[in-house]
Amino acid sequence: MRKTITKKCLQLITTAGKLFKEHGFKNISVEQICSESKVSKMTFYKNFKNKNDLILYILTEIFERGFLEVDRIYAENISFEEKMIQLFTWKQNFIKEWGDKFILDYMHALPDLKLLLEDYYTKSHQLFLALIIESQKKGEVRPEIRPEFILKMLDLFQVVAQDDDLIKYYNKYNDFLAEINNFFFYGIIAGKGKNN
Fold first, then answer.
1. Structural domain 1-48, CATH architecture
2. How far apart, in whole angstroms, are the C-alpha atoms of residue 104 and residue 173?
């Protein structure tokens, strides 16, 4: 992380975020970011090695804020189900804020972003594993299911969440994500979905 953010650097970050929300990050160039932010390319390259470096910066900020929110939710004295509902709501609001194009670009990450995403998934898995174990002890999650199995299923759902053949059946990626979450937590038994 950069220790100091100049006014022009902040303009670049803010403008890039706005453009990425509207168009995703694959279709936006350094030239567009500089033009929209009214900052020279020289200033851009003083602050960032390239566009991927800027994307990494923005995603790192997003993940850090996200983990703060996850920590807040996990720390609340509420049931496992209520925590999951709050997480779904937060995730859906995040997707609404950043838009389908950004999220789909993120889901099909560029090679430079894979390491950051792997770190994010590792940390989120550790937090979720601890939550599952704690919730099993409280009787809120079925104790006969191994926590590692639940995490592996979550990984498989992450693969499903990137399946373009399924995504095309939904008008909004958020609707697709809600269906995945409902299926994972409530299955196919009628009347069990809570996050409609």
1. Orthogonal Bundle (1.10)
2. 8
